[in-house]
Write a structure and sequence with these properties.
eight-stranded antiparallel beta sheet; globular; four-stranded parallel beta sheet; 527 residues; D-amino Acid Aminotransferase, Chain A, domain 1; alpha+beta
């Protein structure tokens, strides 16, 4: 019996799959959404939800086959997940639109991917794949990068500069790998970019080239991206030529292939080099949010229609705006409260706010792209306005931590982060030079009664720090950090020498942990 509406399977019910579910329903499809987590945030959007482990390609195939036999099935797709190989496996066996399973494996396993690049002469780093307890030869001089061969979101990914670091990084990379393997590759110097593309019967249709903003070595934490890139047309052309050649080398863009590709490309001193290519549209808010805001085009709509065998439409940009995505983060601890959400949402040009935490949530300084606290997205005709809006909104969100807390106390006591042997992780919120460190040491420790501080408490002056023009890792100045402290504490806390006052210990907490560290220090005085 034929279903009244064509059915489409969408793998994943997370935030990143929300646009695909919404657009599929708008297009008239009956959405059948699969996920291993019945509590995933977009489960309620589906017309039908099935609790299936997305790694179980045979199980997904069997379920899809049952739909095909009983009412029909138009197609299967995903966006922003690791499971493009499950999609390809199922589509290939059921005769649905897609890409070859072998091509999807090439785009899912970084070892296979690098070998394809090498065979096709695509610029990419030297590499070797390592399993647990396997011996290997380092493929290039330090620095190197270690990552799992089959994971996303920068999980288990880090830069290493010594053999001692390499051993620790390998253990982490293998831990995050579903197949128990890590890849060790040469480090690529230079700015990084994200690319999305629709692939239709041999044609690669670019759907966005964005600047990625990567911080906090030795990890690779994306604190945001800006769409479109600010780099020149000539540089963009070189980057996209490298990306398209990489896509073809994986077998994703054959004449019968129907799907998508997402890539990370670096502009090194020697020219563009390909980082990775996935056989799907991107997560990270790019394909579902920032490219649509900047161009007026929804690549997810094209991906949905192609999965059902329809020719993609409406892929020509209709406007040229800038959309900026920015993340906000926390030092380690447990969330007591979150302030400023409405202020962030109401910031001019802000379109979306995604919150990953709540009261009582554990938080940590990010070591991958899934351990951030949330994201803000803006859009404006002017690039500077779009970027400023997203950054201002992200700074408006203030996360107060419970006190006392062992993890927060340990983080704040690890001061300074750098012990004179280079940058350390996690970094201090404010990096001090030698002169400022000496000036900090000259401050009195602080005289504060051990009962709840009153409005008469002042902050001992530290003019050299206040006037240094420093900002924290969210772009807050020292003055803005003090204003955040006052907003959360409810105390006026003037700068002055009247006793009782907050001295060196207070400033150290602020320098190490930003406004969060300063508020936590004040809160510990009340316990």
């Amino acid at each position: 019996m034929k279903a009244s509406r064509e059915r489409i399977i969408i793998l994943g019910a997370g935030v990143m799959q929300g646009p695909a579910i919404r657009i599929a329903k708008e297009t008239g499809f009956f959405t059948v959404v699969l996920d291993g987590d019945p509590g995933a945030p977009c489960v309620s959007l589906a017309d039908r939800f099935e609790h299936i482990d997305l790694k179980d390609k045979e199980g997904v195939e069997a379920f899809a086959r049952s739909l095909l036999k009983d009412g029909g099935l138009a197609g299967i797709m995903t966006a922003g997940t690791d499971f493009s190989a499950t999609v390809a496996w199922t589509a290939e066996r059921l005769g649905l639109p897609g890409i070859p399973y072998e091509a999807a494996l090439n785009a899912s396993d970084k070892g296979r991917m690098r070998r394809c690049f090498d065979e096709a002469g695509i610029p990419s780093p030297a590499f070797t794949v390592v399993g647990k307890n396997e011996s290997f030869t380092i493929p290039a001089p330090f620095p190197l990068v270690v990552k799992p061969v089959d994971n996303m979101g920068a999980r288990g990914c880090r830069r290493v500069d010594t053999e001692a670091e390499l051993e620790e990084a390998l253990a982490d990379g293998i831990k995050y790998s579903r197949s128990g393997r890590a890849i060790v590759e040469a480090y690529m110097e230079g700015p990084e970019f994200s690319v999305d593309a629709i692939v239709y019967r041999g044609e690669i249709i670019i759907c966005g080239l964005a600047d990625r903003h990567i911080f906090f070595p030795p990890y690779f934490i994306e604190m945001g991206h800006t769409m479109p890139t600010a780099f020149s047309s000539a540089e963009q052309e070189k980057l996209l030529d490298c990306f398209c050649a990489a896509v073809r080398s994986l077998g994703i863009a054959g004449k019968n292939c129907i799907g998508a590709a997402k890539g990370d490309v670096k502009l090194t001193p020697g020219g563009p080099m390909i980082g990775e290519v996935a056989a799907r549209l991107s997560g990270g808010y790019m394909s579902g949010w920032t490219y649509p805001y900047s161009s007026g085009v929804e690549p997810v709509r094209a991906a949905v229609e192609m999965a059902a065998g329809r020719e993609p439409r409406f892929l020509k940009p209709v406007k040229s705006w800038t959309s900026a995505e920015r993340a906000f983060i926390s030092i380690p601890g447990k969330v007591k409260s979150i302030e400023g959400l409405e202020k962030a949402r109401n910031t001019v040009h802000v379109k979306d706010l995604f919150l990953r935490i709540a009261e009582d949530s554990p938080v940590s300084f990010p070591v991958n792209n899934v351990s951030k606290c949330g994201n803000v997205i803006s859009a404006a005709e002017n690039r500077e306005e779009a970027c400023a809006a997203a950054e201002e909104a992200a700074r408006s969100i203030l996360i107060r931590l419970e006190a006392p807390n062992a993890e927060t106390s340990a983080f704040l006591s690890a001061f300074p982060a750098s012990k004179g042997n280079g940058e350390s992780f996690p970094p201090d919120a404010f990096g001090l030079n030698r002169e400022l460190k000496a000036a900090l040491e000259s401050l009195p420790p602080g005289i504060v009664p051990r009962e709840k501080p009153s409005g008469k408490v002042s902050i001992y002056p530290f003019p050299a720090f206040l006037e240094a023009g420093l900002v924290d890792y969210m772009g807050r100045s020292v003055s803005q950090s003090l204003e955040a402290l006052r907003a959360l504490s409810g105390l006026p806390l003037p700068v002055g020498t009247g006793e009782p006052f907050l001295g060196r210990e207070f400033w150290q907490s602020l320098i190490r942990g930003g406004y969060q560290g300063a508020v936590y220090y004040l809160d510990t005085l009340e316990t």
